[in-house]
Amino acid sequence: MKFSLIPTIVCFTLLSCSLLSAQDGNYQARKASKPLSIDGKASEADWKKARWKAIDQVWLGAAPSASDFQGRYKMLWDKNFLYFFVEIKDDSLSDQRKSPLDNWWEDDCLELFIDENRSKGIHQFTHNAFAYHITLDYDVVDMGTKQQPLLLNDHLIAKWTQVDSVTYTWEVAMKVFNDTYDENSKSNKPVILTPNKVMGFAVSYNDNDGNMRRENFIGSIAVAGEDKNKGWIDAGIFGEVKLVK
Ligand SMILES: [Ca+2]
Ligand SMILES: [Ca+2]
Ligand SMILES: [Ca+2]
Ligand SMILES: [Ca+2]
C-alpha cells in the first residue's frame, strides 16, 4: 500500500486548528514562588513560566484591526493576591475625562472581573462579583449597591509601563473580596487564597482612541448571543480560574 502524506497533512492541520481555537476563557494560575514587584514588568521568573492567553473576543464595536488593538494576559496567585500581567497594543492612549466617576468605561481602561465563589449570576448592583475598571492613572471603579459608582482604589495595586510606541504592559495585584463585602464598612477583609480554589474571572480592555468614547470593548471569553456586553451585569459569562500549586 502506498503511503499518502495528504491525510497526515490534513490531520496535522486540523489538530493545529483545534489547538489554536482552544481559547476557552479559562486559566490555570500557578502559585508565585515569592511576592511580585508590581512595576508593570514581567521580570520575575514566575511570569516567564506563566502561559499567555488572548484578549480577542469583541464584546462591543467592530472587530479592531491589529494596529488598533491587540491584547493578551497571564495570571499568578499567592495567598494575598490574584496577579494579572496584561500586554496591550493600542495605537492611541486616551484619558478624556478628569473625574474617574464620569462615564468611567469610556476612556482607555483595563477592566478585570472577579467572582470569588464562582456563583455566577447578576452582580450589577451587588458584590456577588466585581467589575474593576482601572483607569490609566490607576483609579479603580465599580458600581455599588446604591447604583452609584464606587472608587475602590484599595482593592488592587496596578502599574503599567510603555514598552514601545504601541505596547503597554500592566501588572496588577488584586485583593479578592467575597460577596459579604460591605461598601459602608472600613473593615472588609480580602479572602486568603488557597490551592485548588476556583473563581470566575475575565480580562478585558475598553479602547478609546480620542473620540470621547470607547470604540471597542474586547474580552478574554466568547459570549453567546447578540449582546456580548454582559460581563458588567452577569457573572455567568465569566471564565474560570483555578489556582494550582
Ligand atoms: Ca513585576
Ligand atoms: Ca486603539
Ligand atoms: Ca459570587
Ligand atoms: Ca486607546
Task: Give your account of this protein's structure.
The chain is mostly beta strands and 245 residues long. It has a single domain (23-244), classed as Immunoglobulin-like. The chain is 9% helix and 35% strand. Strands 1, 2, 3, 4, 5, 6, 7, 8, 9, 10, 11, 12, 13 and 14 form a 14-stranded mixed sheet that branches. It is globular and about 40 Å long. The termini are far apart. One calcium ion binds next to loops. The site of one calcium ion has 8 residues, from loops.
Please give a quick description of this structure:
Strand 4 (69-77) and strand 5 (82-90) form a beta hairpin. The relative contact order is 0.24.
Keywords:
mainly beta, 14-stranded mixed β-sheet, 2 helices, 9% helix, disordered N terminus, binds calcium ion
Specify the helix fraction band.
Answer: under 10%
Largest sheet: 14 strands, mixed
Query: Which regions have little confidence, pLDDT < 50, spanning 5+ residues?
Result: 1-22
Choose one word for the global shape: globular
Structural class: mainly beta
CATH architectural label? Sandwich
